[in-house]
Amino acid sequence: MITLTLLHPIQSTPVQSWTFEHEPTIRIGRSSDNHVILYSAVVSRHHVELRQNGSKWEIVSLGANGTYLNGKQITQVAVVDGVVIRLARSGPNIQISLGVADSANDGKTQTQQIKTKPLTTAFPEVLPKTPLADLPNPPPALPPTRLDQAIPNREAQEDTIGEKRKANLPAPLFDIHTGKPLQVLHSLRDYQVVKILNQGGVGQDQVVWRQGQSWLARSLNPKWQDNSAAREQFHQQAQRLLPLRHPGLPQFVDFFEEEEQPYLVQEWVHGQSLGQRVEAQGSFSQERAIEIILQLCEALEYLHQQSSPVLHQNLNPDTLVQRVVVEELPAMDNSPEQPSPALNFGRLAVTGFLSLNTLATEVQPVAASFSAPEQQQGEVFAASDLFALGTLLVYLLTGKQPRLFYAQREQGFRFYPEYVPGITPELVAIVRKLTHPRPEERYASAQQVAAALQQV
User: What is the distance between the alpha carbons of residues 150 and 155, in angstroms, rounded to a whole number?
Assistant: First the structure.
């Protein structure tokens, strides 16, 4: 038996584990035909193979960016129990363990049994300093942070209570050495509930843990649990989301019902919302703003082209999260120590699904400022999602809320991009079409929007 464990890039805590019992060759890489799939730009399609040779295992590097052991690039070496390899100089760390893994059900470390179907995981991103406005509050983070975090060493963990009081920080959720939850509120089937993140509006979100990995479990607010319309709408939306697979979306992994309460389990997206980035750093350049909207267009085109189109209905700066990736800084003065990690923002992730806006008695001001006028009357179309592309683009360019550019003027009450300071005439024309009060007058698809923006 051999167990592979994906380690957090900063604290080296377990993120996810895979155990193989009868595989003579185990492939790791970015391609979907690997046993372990890691979505990272520096990971090759087929990066590493672990090959069994009698009673021993060998590591064989195949990736263009190399595989590293103790900071040195390797080509082919024997596996030593507990060894940690890094895929590329700035990629994910994988620990390799030989022998039987502990897999009890009482909160001890568990491994995920992989037989034939490979499990896809995302390379663990590190959280920025600013707390997320979106749902996830992942535990590992670079200090200082207001998010739940793992403490870098045992002495610091023992002194956590006093330090948290000084900094007004919440207690850590996971043990820094084992990756297991420090406190379990209750269980949902084989998931352990670690923390309830919110109970506002129609929905409720919880951090759950299973087999060495944390997830986000979305469900109904207990106040809405007995509402048959809410349960039916939640169930329908969850069933549409579960089969979706796109790098611009969270990974949806499970759906079940427990005591008449539906639960959708999805990836816990680690990153910083666009709202937080604008608040912290100001507006974006035109080139960068268009690049972000183009990524959003790609995700929307995928959603809208499903056999039963998936409409987001809640696009705003708080539901759009830029994943944070880790890159290495080169070691100074030929130091043998591992290079220090640096943060960089990566691909946009569209979160905030299952908003159940049509059931909510109150529309959140942030969402309302970006949403199409027909949504205020309970109607929603694919063109409603496209409307938000226009208001989001203006927000990224100016850092100002779209409500400031609504007015009663020559074309009636509507969004007027021509009064947005500094916006180019080419973008004015695109945003005016995107934000037309009548859905049929907008672009026909996200692909058309992307083509127009690429011309700019």
Answer: 12
